[in-house]
Design a protein that fits this description.
This is Transposase. It comes from Megamonas hypermegale. By secondary structure, the chain is mainly alpha-helical. The chain is built from three helices and no strands. The chain starts with 14 loop residues before the first helix and ends with a helix.
Length: 91
Amino acid sequence: MKTYCFKLYKAKRNKKLHKVINIAGIIYNHCIALHKRYYRLFKKSLNIYKLQKHLTKLKKIGKFSYFKEVGSQAIQDITQRIDRAYKLFSS
């Protein structure tokens, strides 16, 4: 796997990109917090499909409507990465 490092400068044309990246970070942190809460309550890991369903419901709520600015494939990738990390951590 190759990784690339880019520097994003504050420019008008990058404004939407910065916004989407920040929202993706918020979604990631929300999913991590949800995983922690779920494990604390039920002593088992959260299923990836339940997590994706939860995020779909959140997008319909007015408070979290800005989640729609991130593409659905990006949100699925976030949940897959979190699920993979928790599976590797627990095994």
